Amino acid sequence: MSKTSLRYGWLGTGGPPALVFLTFVGAWYGYSALVGPTERNISSPYPHAVVQTVFGDLSNLTELLKATWVTTKVAGVGLVIAMAVGILFAVLMSQAKWIERSFYPYAVLLQTVPILALVPLIGLRWGFGFKSRVIVCVIISLFPIITNTLFGLKSTERGHGDLFLLHNAPRLTRLRKLHFPAALPAMFTGFRISAGLSVIGAIVGDFFFGRGQKGLGIKIRDYTNFLETEMLIGGIILSALLGIAMFQVFGFIGRVITGAWHDGA
Amino acid sequence: MTSLTSAPALTFDKVSMVFPDGTKALDEVSLTVRPGEFVSIVGPSGCGKSTVLRIASGLLSPSEGQVELDDQNIGYVFQDATLLPWRSVQKNIELFMELEGVDKQARRENAAAAIELVGLSGFEKHHPIRLSGGMKMRVSLARSLTLHPGLFLFDEPFGALDEITRERLNDELIALFLRERFGGLFITHSISEATFLSTRVLVMSDRPGRIVGDFEIPFEYPRSEELRYDPLFAELSGTISQALRDGHS
Ligand SMILES: Nc1ncnc2c1ncn2[C@@H]1O[C@H](COP(=O)(O)OP(=O)(O)O)[C@@H](O)[C@H]1O
Ligand SMILES: [Mg+2]
Description:
The structure holds 2 protein chains of 2 kinds.
Chain A: H1 3-8, H2 15-35, H3 47-55, H4 58-95, H5 97-112, H6 115-126, H7 130-154, H8 158-166, H9 171-208, H10 216-225, H11 229-258
Helix pairs in contact in A: 3-11, 4-5, 4-7, 4-9, 4-10, 4-11, 5-7, 6-7, 7-9, 9-10, 9-11, 10-11
Chain B: E1 10-18, E2 24-33, E3 38-42, H1 49-57, E4 64-69, E5 74-77, H2 89-99, H3 104-117, H4 133-145, E6 151-155, H5 163-180, E7 183-188, H6 191-197, E8 200-204, E9 211-216, H7 231-246
Parallel strand pairs in B: 3-7, 3-8, 5-6, 6-7
Antiparallel strand pairs in B: 1-2, 1-4, 8-9
Helix pairs in contact in B: 2-3, 2-4, 3-4, 6-7
The complex binds adenosine-5'-diphosphate and magnesium ion (MG).
Magnesium ion binds near residues 49 and 155 of chain B.
């Protein structure tokens, strides 16, 4: 048990969030009852109806899980590409001020241009399928990886740098044995943020690039068109769970790699 | 003890340092450290003591004056232990050998010997985050010992430690000094620490740092705890303290 949970009893455990959840579900029931007291309610079905439809029917659940898997693939591939590109650019930018100054404005641009404004162009250029969806994921998740990695690479303590300078260690050795390991905790912070963003990117991409295997976004759009609100909510729940899972996976890998020496998240 | 007539391990000849921002840190500092000599520098904080060591190590080039090093192989122990947090004790101690291209087998053996010497056996796999301040300092010492440097630079290495740990490490440092016979240049703000450890104590003035006092410490090594209560020890400490106050304008 952690210190907090000892000091605050149930307040330090899962108690408070559970209470919020119950309140939320209660409010949902109230709202559903208010809006449409009929058995099947298109705009706001009862929570138990959602649970029944989504988790009570194996074929429905399989349908959603399949779509979740497709989205996972898109988000995963996009994230891996963003990690490779982001680390590469951060390393380059850390090597010389002029390189950093040359690229940083474009990294910011990538972050500030609304992704939806870019989507049509991406579609025309790379088609309306898997590839374009991945590109959306890369664009949306690149910035936190670049900035966090760069911040990490530049956060090396001067005293540590002196150790390497005293022994005339070449640049590449310093990068490998000093700057890179020092940057790991910050890099994982970036990966965690981007993992969540990449899932968002995959779902946004689905809305526009519907060719090929159907991801959660495409299903969500279909359910909306057919007024299958329970399944629509199921899709929302699964995309949220996927985002959380991706976030947690990188939190876990980060702890495995840096947990022994870094006390942080 | 090594003869004091052999070539100096380190010589400063009228070394001055002005930083790019105009801060004048050192003013014509001249000093010599011979092999087998343990020289301490005491001086008020900010007077340029660390700058002396950074120049001696080559991390910084002086604005004026000459620096001569007999052997490029130097040990450098900083005030904070500067251990790499992602490396275990063993790996931290191997770092300098790694950077100098020592092969793996020799690294293992030298690290094991150094670990034994500073009394860290059993802690090889620990990460620095799990060590006390005194233990971190021992790792830092061991890391430099692996290369058997001819000159050892110490920048207030025990300044952040409690009195008991500090005195224990003083004893251990003297044992290492007698065993390895390096030339030592030791920065401290503790007069009693300087007197206890050294063959010679230099006193620096306020910034810009100048050497304003140079005192032989005649006690035989190994030095015992009782020395700290010796009347002559107290008298010497008093004289040094007076010189320090006189240099304080
Ligand atoms: N890189 C630097 N640029 C400008 N001033 C510096 C630099 N390094 C040290 N100084 C200044 O030089 C003076 C001496 O510093 P230092 O040698 O660290 O003092 P000490 O170790 O005696 O406390 C201080 O006033 C410090 O602020
Ligand atoms: Mg200092």
